[in-house]
Write the structure tokens for this entry.
Amino acid sequence: MHNASSATFAARAARLAGLAAVAFAAAVASGGCGEHRDGPRRTIALAECRLPKLALAAQCGELEVPEDRRNPDGRRIRLTVAVLPANTLDPRPDPLFILAGGPGQAATSIAPFAAQLTDVRRDRDIVLLDQRGTGRSSPLDCSAFAPDDDIASSLQLDPVPKARACAAELAAKGIDATQYTTAAFMADLDAVRAALGYDRINLWGGSYGTRAALEYMRRHGTHVRSAVLDGVAPPGMKTLVDVWPARDAALAALVAACGESPSCRAAHPDLAAALAAIGARLGADGRDVTIVDPRTGKPQAVRLTYDHVLAALQPLLYLPELQSLVPEAIGRAAAGEFSPLLALAELVTNDLAGQTNTALHYSVTCTEDAPRVTAADRARSLAGTRTRTLAERALAVCAVWPRGTMSADAATPVRSDIPVLILSGGLDPVTPPAYGNEVAATLPNSRHIVAHGYGHIVSPHACGPRLIATFVDDPGFGKLPPTCVAHFEKSTRPLLWPDRLGAQP
């Protein structure tokens, strides 16, 4: 909802407030906020609720479904759905569904982004369904994945022991971890769509959410009016190996960009050499160092390896704003001061950990990615990358995690005439623009916009919400705001260092 900027508008709004409140109450009594008055009735009861980091109230409800649809009389789970109702008493019948990333991120955790889409909410509901196993939808909670007490605990690089313990804990609770897959999520999504009384819906998917959106288009395309795919993960992508060379390339590009900036180059004359010096300093077996725990401010002795440094750099590559801090963090680490780098990484990973369910991540990737990874894939994607050891450890989890089944065609390209707007960040270290091109090749009614100066997930930035609203309002490409498209397509690497500030697009 737009802010009122004039006294006249504010006065008129105040006079109408009483009438609006009465009408609002009547709408709720007649079947729920945001329900089209001429549409089918909902079978999910919605009630006011509060979502994390969101000031406005939402409408939440639950739908019970079988954990295993092949055994409808077996264990049942509850799915939680949140609706940000349209700001009208007569909304359009086709809402926007938000599909989060990960896999493992709960849709309700990105409600603040959904709330940014005010032009969409002007006349459409926005729906957030927590994927089964995440958020409030029967989460796969394990004590093994409880937050670490200190930074030394968080530096454990081998994920297998915790994964093994979690798998045993879930099994002891009677939870079948093999049933938490993209296919099951899509069946849930269609059940929620029907229970909310919507016939056709619009989709927004980010990162893994793009794979989910594409799979919904494949299985339930007659119910899809349009889709926005941001940070595309193609169906054929083998996440467990493919992300690592992309991240390695992003780090190399950042090192090169520092060399092109006079101020960054003056402070860090040879960033590549600094990285090599860190590896040499720590050696093959690591080294005992003292760092300041960012949680307590107290010094703590830890065993640090080069893999720890590389792992800490990974989350800092996703956003240009974080990338700007990397040269100084590397420089400090090369001088033996590792605390700034580890504190930065801890800040980002703790935020992500609060939004992402690790067990669900394993259930999806071990079912849908690991079985397709061959020895040739390992050789092609991991040979020569700095992060090969980290990648192999991530793959090793799937040897101890319960594995479900996937459809024979799930990794094949999706072919559809549904209007699709594709967004890619030119600096994206995990889903680069090439993936957007790959998906667009089998979606003839699509437009791919590459935001050259942006990282992973473009939608929340600059005029992204307006671009999405325009597309969803009239799925096509002739009415996309040209100045917004030009802003993204003509953007360059953000001017991250002082000598380059002020000339940003």
